[in-house]
Write a structure and sequence with these properties.
10 helices, 14 strands, 3-stranded antiparallel sheet, single chain, 5-stranded mixed sheet, Spore Coat Polysaccharide Biosynthesis Protein SpsA, Chain A, alpha+beta
């Protein structure tokens, strides 16, 4: 129910943000979604993936393993897409200019945010689905906590240094915030729906701490990539070729 308060924002966002206008939506949810609910999103294509919520952390891990693990690979969830953006409904895109430019950079295989210093955000991330080894996603699923699991699953991307932090973003208790951040996860933004992008809305993007130096984070993250190693809690937008 907390996330449902943001649905009016998403309907307006798709109408105003070019990146979303050329996007398909995979809605990963345990709730019953009606056709009228789907119409409110205004995405060009919407696919609903139902799941049984096993709890806060288990549910978040299941979202990523279903989408990026063997299940998603065999069912071809992301076939034909160059990039996947994963986010919760309460994580809003404020501006897509930097995101589009970064996704067009052939040297980038991941757009991330740091969480609690040495982990990677799961409330928002973007990457080419081909950059993820589905076998490792499943192998890493014994890591407790969604962030530790995801960090383990993408350890190869991190080691390669072919990733970037979200420009202008800051961290506040494992949420992406910041006055200059193109992505904001603030639990008060629903009060600005549906016109959260309007200048007169004056929605607070909060403030937090800068992300750490990536090299320091990589050094701390490597122990997670044991064994051979090197989503989508409520929704994920997938972006097609040429976007």
């Amino acid at each position: 129910q907390a996330h449902q308060k943001y649905l009016p924002c998403w309907g307006r966002a798709v109408q105003q943000i070019p990146l979303l206008q050329h996007s398909d939506l995979i809605l990963y949810t345990s709730a019953n979604i009606s056709s009228s609910d789907i119409e409110r999103f205004h995405f060009r294509n919407v696919t609903v993936k139902k799941y049984v919520n096993e709890g806060w952390q288990k549910g978040a891990i299941k979202a990523i393993t279903d989408a990026f693990g063997e299940k998603g690979y065999q069912e071809k969830w992301f076939e034909g897409y160059d990039w996947v953006i994963r986010l919760n409904a309460d994580v809003l895109i404020m501006d897509d200019t930097w995101l589009r430019k970064t996704m067009e950079n052939a040297s980038i295989d991941g757009i991330f945010g740091a969480c609690m210093g040495d982990q990677i955000h799961t409330d928002f991330f973007a990457l080419p689905p081909q950059a993820v080894d589905y076998k490792l996603v499943d192998e890493c699923s014994n890591k407790y906590g969604a962030e530790k699991h995801f960090t383990c699953a993408i350890a190869n991307v991190l080691r390669s240094k072919r990733f970037t932090w979200v420009e202008g973003a800051e961290e506040k208790v494992c949420r992406m915030v910041g006055a200059r951040s193109p992505i904001v996860h603030a639990h008060t933004l629903w009060q600005c729906c549906p016109d959260y992008l309007a200048p007169e809305a004056k929605c607070s993007r909060l403030s937090g701490n800068p992300f750490p130096d990536p090299n320091v984070v990589i050094k701390n993250l490597l122990p997670y990539g044991t064994a051979r190693s090197w989503l989508l809690s409520t929704s994920a937008a997938t972006f097609g070729r040429g976007v």
